From TrEMBL:
<protein>
    <recommendedName>
        <fullName>Ferric uptake regulation protein</fullName>
    </recommendedName>
</protein>
<keyword id="KW-0805">Transcription regulation</keyword>
<comment type="similarity">
    <text>Belongs to the Fur family.</text>
</comment>
<feature type="binding site">
    <location>
        <position position="94"/>
    </location>
    <ligand>
        <name>Zn(2+)</name>
    </ligand>
</feature>
<dbReference type="InterPro" id="IPR036388">
    <property type="entry name" value="WH-like_DNA-bd_sf"/>
</dbReference>
<keyword id="KW-0408">Iron</keyword>
<dbReference type="InterPro" id="IPR036390">
    <property type="entry name" value="WH_DNA-bd_sf"/>
</dbReference>
<dbReference type="GO" id="GO:0008270">
    <property type="term" value="F:zinc ion binding"/>
</dbReference>
<keyword id="KW-0862">Zinc</keyword>
<feature type="binding site">
    <location>
        <position position="97"/>
    </location>
    <ligand>
        <name>Zn(2+)</name>
    </ligand>
</feature>
<feature type="binding site">
    <location>
        <position position="131"/>
    </location>
    <ligand>
        <name>Zn(2+)</name>
    </ligand>
</feature>
<keyword id="KW-0479">Metal-binding</keyword>
<comment type="function">
    <text>Acts as a global negative controlling element, employing Fe(2+) as a cofactor to bind the operator of the repressed genes.</text>
</comment>
<keyword id="KW-0804">Transcription</keyword>
<dbReference type="GO" id="GO:0003700">
    <property type="term" value="F:DNA-binding transcription factor activity"/>
</dbReference>
<dbReference type="GO" id="GO:0005737">
    <property type="term" value="C:cytoplasm"/>
</dbReference>
<dbReference type="GO" id="GO:1900376">
    <property type="term" value="P:regulation of secondary metabolite biosynthetic process"/>
</dbReference>
């Protein structure tokens, strides 16, 4: 997702457009990996000294509810990344740096065959490990 798409979602859903929200979305677009609220707060503090975690978390949850960002729990904390909107896929997530890699394979048909009597509404597959770059550093 690009910044303009995310801002359009905010406006369409009746939420205020602010420079803080734009800058927060830009952080996600530029990083393109899972990051935590503290990272966002540190980046925004450069332009908005003293920005509170409450502001960060409130916007993170709004963005997640609107489908602008995706969240996952990693190392006991929530981390977020800009939502992928181009095609259905899943992710490998590096446990060290938060970098993601696209997995174009989707096992949902196999899962449905193992669970023929359930009604699956949605799914999300995340694979965790250490990326190539972080393996070289260790």
């Amino acid at each position: 997702m690009k910044t303009d798409e995310a801002i359009n979602i905010l406006k369409t859903e009746g939420h205020k457009y602010t420079n803080k929200r734009r800058d927060m979305i830009n952080i996600f677009v530029n990083e393109d990996k899972y990051i935590n609220a503290k990272h966002i707060q540190q980046k925004l503090d450069e332009s908005y000294p003293g920005i509170s975690f409450d502001t960060i978390y409130r916007n993170l949850h709004l963005f997640k509810d609107l489908g602008i960002v995706e969240g996952t729990e990693l190392d006991g904390e929530m981390k977020f990344r800009i939502a992928c909107t181009d095609h259905h896929h899943h992710h490998f997530i590096c446990e060290s740096c938060g970098d993601t890699k696209v997995i174009d394979f989707c096992p949902i048909e196999q899962i449905k065959s193992f669970l023929p009597k359930v009604d699956i509404h949605r799914h999300k597959l995340e694979v965790y490990g250490i990326c190539e770059a972080c393996q070289r550093v260790q």
